[in-house]
Predict the 3D structure of the following.
Amino acid sequence: MNVPGRGDAQIVERGFQRYEGPRSGVPGAIRSVSWESIRATLGLGRPARNKIFPVIAVVIAYLPAVVFIGIAVLIPGDILEPEDVADYPGYYGFIILAIVLFTALVAPEVLVSDRRNGMLAMYLSTPLDRRTYLVAKAVAVAAMLGLVTLLPPVLMLIGYSVENSGPDGLGGWLATLGRIVLSGIAISAALAAVSMAASSLTDRRAFAAIGIVLLLFATPILAAALVEGADLSPYWRLIDISTMPFELVFRIFGDPGNFPELATWAVLASNLVWTIGGIAVVWWRYSKLVIAR
Amino acid sequence: MSAIIETRGLVMAFPSTRALDSLDVSIPNGVTGLVGANGAGKTTLISLVLGLLTPTSGSLSVLGLDPSTSGPELRARIGYGPERNVFPDDLRAYDFVRHLAEVKGLPRDEARSRASDSLYLVGLGEERFRALGTMSTGQRQRVKLAQAIAADPRLIVLDEPTDGLDPVQRDEMLNIIVQVNRNFGIDVVLSSHVLEEVERVCDHVVALAEGKLIAQGSMAELAGASGGIEMELVEIVDRPTSIDDVAAQLVAAGAGVRRDGTTLSVVGLSDDELFDLAARSVAQCGARLRRLGNRRRTLDDIFASDDPGEDSQGGEWVGGDGRGSGGPS
């Protein structure tokens, strides 16, 4: 065996030097800011206390999927009834708490902190501008929401498939996966836009989080009061940001959902309005911000 | 020498104020001090250089590019050290510097190694894995410098980089800044209100007041030997008027004199005449001389001469029939 001796030792020059290599430009900056925002939200690279809240939310989101897969594994297929395990659109009903927690946690952490501690001005002194900065942050928020809206049903699909309880055939499997992905994106987009809008209106994370939670709880109450209390048109339910994304998921899976009296196009339009409206508020707010170093 | 920052008729007007007014500035390579009181327009100029603001009118060129049209490309080549402590407190210094280097476009591996190298360069090699929130003010200032240079910029803009530092820390920070320029060829624009430190480390100076340029040029031009002499006298208990007597004699001989404590600045004649006159006056008045030499103009004088009503150093000029460089009107 060739053992390196002192004669093989070499000093590798170390220290600050000029860099002439390639630079990744704006796409790299967006990628880096998105990833760092995700790390911050999950408490990665931070003290343990920063991880508590996200871990709780993730556990709440994934626990039902694990339980349902466990049921599918433990109960023989010929005994297992469809109602013993959740269907994909119905799964969201089990994890609504995790989704609310994440919605209230993520956007304030991702957006408000930068304005409070001055990192926004730092980021805008890099290749990012306001538009690309917001794109980076939106990607981070949507990705984080996707962690609880997209991946648990995917995990369930994989678990069911392994236990031969999944969709029939490759075509059916891919169609189900496509619906799950579309559902996750729809929920994440609407909730990300709304939570980012709320977070753009205040410089206090707590206020933003409370505002998001209030919005998520107030709009269903208001919608119910208008439709059931005031006997107005059922289409007033479209103002309900808590329910409409999940109602859209039912329609994506071909299910009439909880409010069959509402046309699918109206449910889709409600989600689009919430999403586009949220984006508009965020852009309006950030285009008005005076950012000087 | 090429200009790294050049403005022509630059105006930045806000609804309530005109922060910069027809500014013509040319900043060459090297270390340049951007000086002025609060509200002078330093912050606005930095914000325009970084592309955070768009000028109302006029032109601005930074590294040959227009920040308002080539912002991303330009900002990838500028390092920025803000005055504010812009720290996520629970983030480690290394992660902070690495992240911002990545945002500036460096590949991940390169950003990692350069984050460490930058932190070593500023003297925080052993502290690089500490959370930012646990660092002292001096360490935080160094982290700000490290993140500014980590992505290997052509130019770094530092806003009050010695703010909150004690004299020893200030000296160390200024030495690092000079080292960054001299050893790595990175141009530096240093905004500061501490004129002494600007005089010490800067090759060039841009002085602003109320949004207007009041002086720019090399330090040698602006704050070097200025003509005239400076004499420091000793207060004598038995002759309490001796310093005033000397000053009176100098004025009577046609010189312009400004008294600052026990120091007299004297202008208005040739240096040889002034040295002779000073020696005679001291002898005739029975005064005692502690120091005699050529007078040096300081940045304080620039601001003092800009506003005759204020004299930042010493009292009013008396006597003399002409205005020397920094001397009496």
Q: What stands out?
A: Residues 25 and 84 of chain B are 26 Å apart (CA to CA).
